[in-house]
Amino acid sequence: MVADASMRMADLDPILERRARDPGALLQILREIQELRGNIDTATVTYLCAQLGIPRTRIEGVAGFYSFLNLQPRGEYRVLFSDNITDRMLGNQSLLEAMCHQLWLQPGKVSEDGLVSIATTSCTGMCDQGPAMLVNGRAITRLSLQRVQEIAQLIRNRTPLDSWPADFFRVDDNIRRGGLILDNKLAPGDALRSGLNIGEAGIVEEIKKSGLRGRGGAGFPTGLKWEACRNAAGTTKHVVCNADEGEPGTFKDRVLLTRQADLVFEGMTLCARAIGAQHGYLYLRGEYRYLLDPLQDVLQRRRESNLLGKDILGQSGFDFDIEIHLGAGAYICGEESALIESLEGKRGIPRSRPPFPVTHGYMQQPTAVDNVETFCSAALAIQMGADSFRAIGTAKSSGSKLISVSGDCPRPGIYEYPFGVSVREVLEDCGATNTRAVQVSGPSGICIAESEFHRKLGFEDLPTAGAFMVFDDSRDLFEVARNFVHFFAHESCGFCTPCRVGTSMLKSTMDKIAAGHGTRFDLAEIENLDHVLQTTAHCGLGRTACNPVLHTLKHFRPAYENRLKSLDFEPAFDLDGALARARQMTGRDDAGAHLKTEET
Amino acid sequence: MSDTFHLDGAEVPFESGQTVMQAALAAGHYIPHLCYHPEFKPHGSCKLCTVKVNGRTTASCTMPAEAGLEIESETEELNALRRTLVQMLFAEGNHFCPSCEKSGNCMLQALGYDLEVHTAGFRHLYPDRPVDASHPDILLDFNRCILCELCVRASSEVDGKNVFGLAGRGITKHLIVNAESGQLADTDIALADKAMQVCPVGVILPKRVGFSIPIGSRRYDERPISAQALDDAPRQSAASGGCTACEE
Ligand SMILES: Cc1cc2nc3c(=O)[nH]c(=O)nc-3n(C[C@H](O)[C@H](O)[C@H](O)COP(=O)(O)O)c2cc1C
Ligand code: SF4
Ligand code: SF4
Ligand code: FES
What we know:
The structure holds 2 protein chains of 2 kinds.
Chain A: H1 2-8, H2 13-18, H3 26-37, H4 42-52, H5 56-63, E1 77-82, H6 85-89, H7 92-103, E2 116-121, E3 133-135, E4 138-140, H8 145-156, E5 175-177, H9 190-198, H10 200-210, H11 222-231, E6 238-243, H12 252-259, H13 261-275, E7 279-284, H14 292-304, E8 321-326, H15 336-343, E9 367-371, H16 372-384, H17 386-390, E10 400-407, E11 413-418, H18 423-429, E12 435-440, E13 446-449, E14 467-472, H19 477-491, H20 497-514, H21 520-536, H22 540-544, H23 547-561, H24 575-578, H25 580-586
Parallel strand pairs in A: 1-2, 5-11, 6-7, 6-9, 7-8, 10-14
Antiparallel strand pairs in A: 1-3, 3-4, 10-11, 12-13, 12-14
Helix pairs in contact in A: 7-8, 9-13, 9-16, 10-11, 10-13, 13-16, 19-20, 19-23, 20-21, 21-23
Chain B: E1 3-7, E2 10-14, H1 20-26, E3 50-53, E4 56-59, E5 70-72, H2 76-92, H3 107-114, E6 138-140, H4 150-158, E7 164-167, E8 174-177, E9 204-206, H5 219-222, H6 225-232
Parallel strand pairs in B: 1-5
Antiparallel strand pairs in B: 1-2, 3-4, 3-5, 6-9, 7-8
Bound molecules: flavin mononucleotide, iron/sulfur cluster (2 copies) and FE2/S2 (inorganic) cluster (FES).
Flavin mononucleotide (FMN) is lined by residues 214-218, 220, 242, 244-247, 332, 334-336, 369-371, 374, 539-541 of chain A.
């Protein structure tokens, strides 16, 4: 029996071997098993408990946290339609229905023959070339009815993914406007050499002087972060590049990692030099799995050129290397402390702070976590000098910013601007017309209407992590907000009461309004939920979860009010509807078998 | 000499390393709490202990005490937030207090009374959570779980067993037990475990001891939770500045 079991698990041994049976690598191990086998079944969990020496509660806890890990079989082909509002606007729902129809199955269910399942997932970062999907974790772009039908046929024929047309998997960069970062002509090692010339403390000083602020959303001054990490007690330190890019509508890190990987790694290496770190990690969202191999190649090339590894560029004692960790479908892992938990192979739950990662990060050691674009900008600031860097952008927002444009415009893609560009200029450049609203910085950001298109992107006015979703006058902003609310409810980590329950309550209230049962009371409830979430949620996800509703309510209140009943209260529960089953069973449908609906 | 901060105007001494909650309880000041337990490392998930520190709201059980902080706790604004949080916890699970063995000894219910939660507030979610009656001596009624993780912490930190764990995410987060079958009977839990004693609500119950004390004469039927929580907190001796005697 035992021998039999370990025979069936023999395929897992190379994975366990490669990860040295380290429980800290649990997430990476589970992810690789998922990729190999399509799920992680009960027997596999039992085997892992023994091999890793950890309780099964820990393994099931981790596997159950990440969307892309399946404890139950989900079919040989697991299809996930990206479900950002931009995918919806491009018709993903009818494509999903068509595919389900063609393959004879219901959304969310596995087909009876165990061949395929079709479901949705949060934004996969392909908004400029959607609708998009993932099949067994591989990104497919530019879906059309024809493409979906071809995919269904390939699945039915059990064609291995490697034999599918390469064009399905093509991801375009769609760079529409270059600038400081995208047009840089540095050779690998250039910025690093400049950094070595000014010395470790010099790098921190230069970054501080450059005025560089984090590009991941919070806008924390990068120089101060590096300085705090440099001054933190401890000899083992870490640099983490946040490439989780989970904010719906954001895809600039995808393009940077495709086109400017050297610059990203160069920025990380400079940071390592400045803070005295030996270990670097790139936390790459699972949706960008296809970037793993090319990025590994870049890292290998850099090792061979002595830009990573021991005694980098001949500086004795300057040892630093970078590992890539893949996420597995959890937006919350973009939050830096949840990201660190995830790096440690755990459920991605944001930590209580203080202490902050700069002193107690990965393995409780000092850790600098920065966004992909922040590292690119840092490398350029070192190369060109703080003064030249500062000269670009505005007084409080130096440098340039990559904007991910999607939605209603003829030219979606990546636009790089010096900070201070107005919303209207971006709209003009991407060719948008009849624009009703723009969602700046994703669902957790801000929705602005035409009266505010003069506002400028930058920390002074409209801070942004990069998303720029355009909605024209054919769009219903209520539905936009509802999509975002569903996103937050789906991505809440569930740790704290207000967000775990509050995002679900918000979702059901929005669904109630959508179904035509909303009342003024529900709008008041939304405002109360917002207050509770903003004041008591544990992290930024919960604190911003009501933003989409509040912002659209502010500008587009009629979109809500048109849907409300004129009553003050309307039960979400449909009494007459609840009797439908009884009517069916008794074969009655006369007036007496219906409850009277109240007069309006 | 220890430093102090102000809680609702009262001066509270603390020792370095203490959180606001620990210092407050030790000095005889009650701050509502649910996932905090004096014998365990603070968790910070229920958020009932939310206070206002220099104008910003934060969980007091995880907030390190600092000299000179001005903290508000017993205000209508904060109690209104706490009321909503209690309503959320009630709405999230299936709580039928009259038929619950824990009624009267339940912290959630006691907080509901103490904070004067008079209405449901939210549409109830009515989740489907089957009970686990597999164990000969212990019943698990997941319907009442508020996900405070106290049993998880007690089992791993005190009992050295890991009987409990959490799985899922968001609103689907749920308690699991450490067995391939998923059943409590197949774990190494024992009646004497610490994990048997910490559940603030009525999930983890010994079988065959139902209603030995009648409802009406139970712990929180006698005195409100705000008065009793202090009895459980480790109190400082008079020497270290905490005044135990004058509080009651
Ligand atoms: C819910 C949530 C999700 C986040 N997602 C990301 C992300 O995908 N990428 C990112 O760089 N920062 C993200 N952040 C911000 C990070 O916590 C952190 O501030 C950032 O990585 C710091 O890097 P920076 O200073 O270079 O911006 C997120 C924050 C929250 C609260
Ligand atoms: S706010 Fe939401 S995402 Fe953040 S810790 Fe709480 S439950 Fe998790
Ligand atoms: S069973 Fe009880 S102690 Fe355990 S998490 Fe649920 S409520 Fe907390
Ligand atoms: S008691 Fe502080 S968060 Fe629960």
